[in-house]
Hints:
Distance between the termini: 35 Å
Largest sheet: 7 strands, parallel
Order of helices and strands: HEHHHHEHEEEEEEEEHHHHHEHEHEH
Structural class: alpha/beta
Helix content: 40-55%
Number of helices: 14
Amino acid sequence: MSPKRSPEKVQEKKDENPAIPKLENPLEERLENFKNLIQDCSINFLIGSGLSVPFMKTLGGIETWLTGLEENKKISDDLRSYIKACLYKSYFEVAMKGNIEVEELSQKNKNYCSSSDRAVELIETYENYKIFFQVINQILYERRSNTVNKQVNIFTTNIDVFCEKVIEDLGLYFNDGFNGVFKKQFQLSNFKKSFFQKSLQYDNIAEIPVFNLLKIHGSVTWKLADGIIEFAGLDVLNKVISKIKDINLLNILEMSNEKWNKEELDLTIEEIISEAERQTPIPSTVEFIEAYEDLQVVNPTKDKFRDTTFNKTYYEMLRLYSNELEKENSILFIMGFSMADEHIRDITFRAIKSNPTLKVFIFCYSTKAKDILKNLSNDKIDLSNYHNVELLNPVEKFGLNKANELLFIPLLENIQLKKSKS
């Protein structure tokens, strides 16, 4: 948990230039409806990799390539291990390695002086998360109802550390499933804890907003020790980096980009195998693969798990996700998530069907929402048949920065304005 410090209200926007006409907010007319929902409902967020863009990237074909590699029985074990290491390395570099920079940015308290594109992306992503958590925390403080607690559930498939680092930097309260000092161990029973603050003078007790952070796909900060998930900081991540330095591995991301730029076609596992066969001699990758597979994260393959402990933890968190959606008068905001994960998609829509009081908003980066609609069509899901699900796509590039600007900040301002008039 983070240091115990009450959050400050989000700073008001600076006065705008009166000569520049103010653009209309396409969600303005709906703020009252959102206010009523968020004031009286149990609040849940499902966060995907899109929220950590632009700093964290994705390696779109990784699951297809790893699955294709496993299914290929013709190549030698040495070549198979080498290709697996190449795929692991590329995925590691786009989706995990950057967490070192996230940690350093937090420790420097944002005094990150580099003007490189990478640094700008890091600060932009960090600031988007920061505003989001500040606003949601203040909304919880302002909730008018005493019948709902001041907690919000953040379910995320992201394995990066943006959420916990930003929450901690802001000094907000959160449950991440870990308890302990010298040996922090993960248990689901550590979630759903409430926190209260008593005034020194009058003994008045007030509930403090709390974020329950459930990392469904694991985290780069987790390790497995004697069958128990423990908090490792970035030790496992640094170990992987130390093992990767001196190995000559294919750059799968570069190969994939070149193929797409030339032919607008996806790179195939057969092409990766063909390129790998040209590498002689094949370097040993045993130590790197062992270090990488110590990371307690969901594998981007059809067979997602390497050990039963992580498998059990994954399904327990999915069960908790399902239970929260089954609660009466719940709201779920799905953000940065394309609905491609079949397990989560299935659980979400089972809850939507069985709980008519559940309201779900799926944030779409594109107004056409092609990826989301395509993934839903895999289960023959037609959103017109669901009264309690809505695509939220008011503008193009509706990422976290636009969600903050068009929905969450105006929503908080609306709540505070109504409160001041009452």
